[in-house]
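## retry 2 of 3
previous attempt timed out at serialization; input unchanged, resubmitting
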Amino acid sequence: MSRPVKLSETEIHAKLETLPGWSLQAGKLHREFQFASFVEAFGWMSSVALVAESMGHHPDWSNVYNRVSVDLNTHDVGGITELDFTLAQRMSELAK
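## retry succeeded, writing output
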């Protein structure tokens, strides 16, 4: 498997335009998800955990009741890569 490549600021901003709800904060992709209940939020996190594990790419996230705060970046390259955008897209799809 090839090493992920850090995306440029221009590439990041262009890709963000295709990913509603996500923003760039402190050099990471960021989004706040809100669900109807704690159980729904935790269920979503469990589904995402399976996807993240299959990708070998894991989010920085926290959960408070029905809210989940997510930050994504690729620690190995010190920035945002295509892996982060792929995981962000899957998270958004699973939240629908």
